Amino acid sequence: MVGLERAILPLIAEREFGLTSKSVILSFIVGFGFVKAFTNLAAGRFSDRIGRKGLLVGGWIVGLPVPFMLMWAPSWGWVTAANFLLGINQGLCWSTTVIMKIDLVGPQRRGLAMGLNEFSGYFAVSLAALASGYIAAAYGLRPAPFYLGIGIAAAGLLLSIFFVRETHGHARHEAKGQGGAEPVSFMEIFTRTSYRDPNLFSCSQAGMVNNLNDGMAWGLFPLFFAAAHLSVERIAILAATYPAVWGICQLLTGAISDHIGRKWMIAGGMWVQAVGIWLIAAVDSFPPWMAGAVLLGIGTAMVYPTLLAAIGDVAHPSWRASAVGVYRLWRDAGYAFGALLSGIVADRFGVVWAIAAIGGLTFVSGVVVAVRMSETHRVTIR
Questions:
Q1: Where are the domains of the chain?
Q2: Fold of 3-381
Q3: Region 142-171 average pLDDT
Q4: For residue 149, which of 63, 34, 261 has the smallest C-alpha distance?
Q5: Residue 47: which pLDDT band, with cuts at 50, 70 and 90?
Q6: φ, ψ dihedrals at 96, nearest 5°
Q7: Helix (H) or strand (E) holding 105
Q8: pLDDT by residue (tens digit) across 199-214?
Q9: pLDDT given at position 381
Q10: Distance CA 76, CA 63 (A)
């Protein structure tokens, strides 16, 4: 669902709605990011209280109108509203699938499970971005590329209703095996995950900055490449390369973190992302841009499943879903902060400076992990 937008929605803003301000164009990501962030928070809390499957099914019901709204939107406000619904859809569906996989797998294989989960999602983002770009080049920016979204939403809903089973009981069983934990209030979980626990804080800030640069890539990269007179097909290739590398590499990176630990996978991944972003900002031709997209994908793959596995390492099973929700609140708020910051900098100083500034923040985030975080994987510690 997200992949359908990555190559073409900023182009629709410029070419069909006549928008010129980068801040206004990126408003759809701001809305998506904030709505998804707070939906993540609610999904984590309610997963602990009422279970997982009902939230998953509800997320897909909310996602059904999105492709129709994008196809027929008469104004940019409709596009922004569609992305509010997409944020709710993604917050409910992704939070519950992550929590359910953590429920189902033991701590020694948690990184592998998160890698498989994130691979499936972001490889699909890549395929959808590539497909929507080629369909748009052949049939126009609207409505044809969004026909795919109708099938995707329907398939997600039917699979969730008929094939997914509730996993909350697995978390309860694991909690009993680890001994009872003292009751923890939601505010306590929120403060621990946000800033009080140095490991959870390190994960939360890294997740936020990771999606901050992803929000910039989603909104600015297509406009940056279009300004260099690339065709829609070539923009689609670049837009698809980053999540494709990100998705495929997660088959390895999550499992690697189970063997070598979490901390340096996260710090190193943030630094690799920064180098990829700076390379894209520094050059003006297709091959180096492709290399930058590959580096950005590798760095993100090092970080994404490892952060989720680290949260699972630290949080007790009795409040783990809530901690995942708080982490995902900060992580996906990064979409909104990235779109706001990069849009403002791009309007004031130019797109190149906006891209370079986001690269600098990504590098600093890796330094924070290196300084504040301890190794969280129990097998590695032993």
A1: 3-381
A2: Growth Hormone; Chain: A; (1.20.1250)
A3: 93
A4: 63
A5: confident
A6: -70, -40
A7: none
A8: 999 999 999 999 999 9
A9: 47
A10: 19
152: Cα separation from own chain's centroid: 18
Characterize 206-231 residue by residue with b for buried, 16 or more Cβ atoms within 10 angstroms of its Cβ, and e for exposed.
bbbbbbbbbbbbbbbbbbbbbeeebe
Q: How far apart are CA 338 and CA 207, in angstroms?
A: 12
- What is the structure's pLDDT at 239? 86
Give the C-alpha separation, 150 to 320, whole Å. 33
Nearest Cα residue to 48 out of 290, 378, 323, 364 = 323
Alpha helices in the chain (DSSP H): 3-6, 9-15, 22-25, 27-50, 53-63, 66-72, 76-104, 110-139, 147-163, 168-177, 186-191, 198-227, 232-260, 263-282, 286-314, 320-349, 351-372, 378-381
Q: Taking each helix axis from N to C terminus, what angle separates 198-227 and 286-314, rounded to the nearest 10 degrees? A: 160
What number is the average pLDDT over the span 91-113?
85
The two tokens of residue 335 are 């979409």
Q: Which residues of 50-80 are buried (b: 16+ CB within 10 A; e: fewer)?
A: ebbbebbbbbbbbbbebbebbbebeebeebb
CA distance 301 to 183: 35
Q: Residue 114: how many CB atoms within 10 A of its CB?
A: 29
Distance CA(230)–CA(69), nearest Å, equals 28
User: Which amino acid belongs to residue 118?
Assistant: E
Residues 6+ apart with CB under 8 A from 180: 318
In whole numbers, what is the pLDDT of the chain averaged over residues?
90
Contact residues for 220 (Cβ-Cβ < 8 A; gap 6+): 10, 22, 26, 342, 343, 346, 351, 354, 355
The answer to whether residue 66 scores a pLDDT higher than 70 is: yes
Residue-level length of the chain: 382
- Least confident among 80-89, 107-116, 222-231: 107-116
CA-based R_g, the chain, Å: 20
Least confident of 155-159, 224-228, 353-357: 224-228
Decide: helix, strand or coil at residue 205.
Answer: helix
